[in-house]
Design goal:
The protein folds into two domains: 21-312, UDP-N-acetylmuramoyl-L-alanine:D-glutamate ligase (3-Layer(aba) Sandwich), CATH 3.40.1190; 320-452, Mur ligase, C-terminal domain (Protein-Tyrosine Phosphatase, Chain A, Alpha-Beta Complex). Helices cover 38% and strands 18% of the residues. The chain contains 17 helices and 17 strands. The strands form three sheets. The protein has an eight-stranded mixed β-sheet, sandwiched between helices. It has a six-stranded mixed β-sheet with strand order 12-13-17-14-15-16, with helices on one face. Helix 3 packs across helix 10. The chain is globular and about 60 Å long.
Amino acid sequence: MGVLTVDGLGTGMKRQAIDTYEAAVSYLYDMPRFTAKNTLEDTRAQLVRLGSPDRNIKHIIHVAGTNGKGSVCAYMKSILEEAGYAVAMFTSPHLVDIRERFVIKGEMISREEFLRAFLQVYDSLNWIELEQGEGYHPTFFEYLFFMAMLLFSQADLDYCILETGLGGRLDATNAVSDKRLTIITRISRDHVEYLGDTIARIAGEKAGIMWEKTPLVYCGDVEEAAAVFEEYARDLRICTYPVSKKDYAFENFHNKTIDFSLHTRYYGYIRVSLHTLARYQMENAALAVRAIEVLDEGRTIAAKQLQRGLEKCFWPGRMEEILPEVFVDGAHNEDGIRAFLDTVRADGCESRGQSRTLLFSVVQDKDYKSMIEQVSDSGLFTRIAVAHMGTSRAAELSQLEGLFNSETQRVTFYGNVGEAFHSLLDERGEDERIYIAGSLYLVGEIKEFLGND
């Protein structure tokens, strides 16, 4: 079993007196997040020690992928709730408040519920062994997953939507005892040090969420990944439902919404509106609708409920307008930046005589050279502000200097996100749109900054 200590030194850990929400959150944040992972067998054993709460949860929908996981989860949740179903959702990461990861029947859990679930996990650990530097302790993500299972098992749900963390095959969420449906979103190269350095290897890790007797909905536009999923499906003898660009067609932008048509299995062609400028959300919405069709087979959910569910859905940090003409986007890897830039190209700023500015930051374990190259080569931004984030994972400014093309755009570096954001707002021209992208940590810092301003 893996040993995880608060100080990360493997010297044992003492049980603390934790009786407040703040103390519980502090404990979680003090745990090293990227230590050697516990085995899936360890995770399953801990679920049993907690009373196997996952066995009391009906219709678990398991979602993996590189980009779009959270959006697909959110669209599915919104459609199911529009149809009158009780739904819980576990996603990551959060932007500002750790409780964002746990949503039950449309509401983020309370601090009291968070503390209660935290203590249930805490009290189940073998503290005699842990104080001797032995025994099992969950990682940060595992701990939150256990809390979700406890909370959801007590909530009288119709559906439970689980988003994987880093991978799939060995992800803590894959320890559940049963699944109703699996979904794999678009695959691209990310976290190569953990998942492999080719699309096929990464797809193989994500395919680990596929189980016998559990159908799969997946993004079929990445041929190398699709081949992996179909091979796994043949071995498992399960049905697959790929979704690709031929299943939907962009119509137009209208008042900061996207109108598009979507081909469905049970409802024919339907017209859909999404309250976003992000063109990539058409793919995620199409995956969510196909998943709903596989679950429901057109029995209880009507086309109007699909349309209203998608239209009502709000997923923060994904091309979200946080101030007039200021947009944040969670693009945080090569493929995410590509999709972000595709949306920016189609925003109509040139026709309106608007200029664009980008506030950018990135974590050091991403392929930031490629991300920056895409941004610079796009020629979409008149000026770029590069900021250092307040997370230990942030890339240092010294790592980023010299990577931008300063001949075609004005590039300025800032020591922190608040300084950069203030400067952009103060210097902003009358016809200037500001975009903020490069990391979900950056989006979180901006949203927290606005909330405290």
